[in-house]
Amino acid sequence: MAAARTFLYFSFGSNLLRQRLQLANPSAVFKTVGKLEDFELVFVGQSGRWQGGVASIEEKKGGEVYGVVWTLNREDIPTLDKQEGIYTPMEVEVAGMDGGRYTCRTYQLRIGWPPGPPSPHYKDVIIRGARQNSLPDHYLKYLESIKDNGFQGDVPVYNDVMRLLENQ
Known about the structure:
Blueprint: E1 6-11, H1 18-21, E2 29-47, E3 52-73, H2 77-84, E4 88-96, E5 101-108, H3 120-132, H4 137-145, H5 156-166
Antiparallel strand pairs: 1-3, 2-3, 2-4, 4-5
């Protein structure tokens, strides 16, 4: 039996935005909006790339994290791993809004990172991705309510993503 040539990836942070994900992973194709149950979205640490805390997930009974299930070519695993950097890959079961249930690769920061608010730039990319993929309204409102750190300097990765959006 041949190995599958694709895999499913559940994104919940900046990779919600197709253009952000496809910077390094051009094979990514939208499959469905998904819900990861018994987890919560957290912002932790201090990323030099994003100038603020970054999104991760932590187990929480009754929690829900909405995101996107993407189909990617297996050849993209190394670039996705590199992009995710200090995150640890893990498999999760995601309930698709299309009625399916999917086993997906996702990424989690190890527990123990201190809380860290996201930069306005990082938060903006997440919200743009949530809108682009029609995440539920109540979840979009939740994302919009997250307090950012007020950083106003230059964020090159944000600039790259915005250029891609402008050129489409």
